[in-house]
Amino acid sequence: MKTNNVNDKLEKSFDIFKEIFQIVKLASKHYKNLCKKYNITQTQFQVLYLLNISDNNGIKMSVLGDNMEIERSGVTLLVDKMALEGLVIRRQM
What we know:
- By secondary structure, this protein is mainly α.
- The chain folds into two domains: about 1-35; about 40-93, Arc Repressor Mutant, subunit A, CATH 1.10.10.
- About 75% of the residues lie in helices and about 0% in strands.
- It contains four helices and no strands.
- The chain has helices at about 1-35, 40-50, 60-70, 70-85.
- The chain starts with a helix and ends in a 9-residue tail after the last helix.
- The mean pLDDT is about 90.
């Protein structure tokens, strides 16, 4: 009896993970399509998303780097390129 109970719980867990993987797959596809539609990279999309949720107060480069797990020098290059493309505006904080 105990084995059936464990097997049932395991089966339910597998079903849940199957659904989660489907959601992740669909979200990833949508994410890629958005980037393609607006001709931006996924990294640029992440920057724009983080700026969007910052309530238009901007975000420090160090915080941006921490959130994206990118070295500060890489964030600076990325944001400078995005500024040249007109995607963001750099300002002192």
